[in-house]
Amino acid sequence: MHLFLHQAWGGPTKNQYAVVIPPDSPNGFGGTAANDWVITDGLDASRSNTVGRGQGFTINNSLSKFSFYTSFNLVFENGRFNGSTLQITGVLPQSANGEWSITGGTGELALARGIAKFKAVQMSSLSNVYELTLHAYYSPMDSCGQYDFNGKSQNYMSVRRNRKFNTLSNNRGSTGIPIEQPQFDKYMSNCVSSTG
Question: For the domain that residue 119 is a member of, what is the CATH number?
Answer without folding.
Answer: 2.40.480.10
